[in-house]
Amino acid sequence: PISYRAMNTIPEHWIPFIPVRVPGDNREIQLQRAAMPSVVDGKPVPARTTLLRYGFDAGKQYFVNEEEVPQAGTRLSVAFNRTRWRDGRVVLWLSAHRGTGRGEASSGLRFDTLLDTPTTPAAG
Fold first, then answer.
1. pTM confidence score
2. In principle, which of 1, 29, 47, 93 could form an S-S bond with 52, CB 3.0–4.6 Å?
3. Rounded Cα gap, residues 23 and 30, in angstroms
4. Is residue 97 part of a domain?
5. Has residue 33 been placed in a domain?
6. Is position 70 within any domain?
7. CB 34 within 8 A of CB 18
8. What is the total count of domains within the chain?
9. Is there a domain that residue 121 lies in?
10. Phi then psi for 77, rounded to 5 degrees?
11. Where in the sequence is the domain holding 96, given as residue range(s)?
């Protein structure tokens, strides 16, 4: 037997960027930040870091030029850094790092899927 699933769920931390045309240009594409709805209340899930949250609270759109993201993707990270200077002072700063992703990724979002359902042996 099989079962039908209209749509599956994906992790809430997934922040999609969708391709959109640049106004006034037929060929130029930008990637626009979108948001996934929360499974609890249906409101858009905001990014937790300042890197992707820019303008989210004010309802502003956020775009990235398509050529800035390689085929392998881009991985952004934020980290605190700490060191001791020559005179013994401690220096602490927050840095952002951009690195190459792990390759084309997929959120795993699927629509209209058929699933095999395991059969249980009849008691007898």
1. 0.63
2. 47
3. 10
4. yes
5. yes
6. yes
7. yes
8. 1
9. no
10. -140, 150
11. 2-116
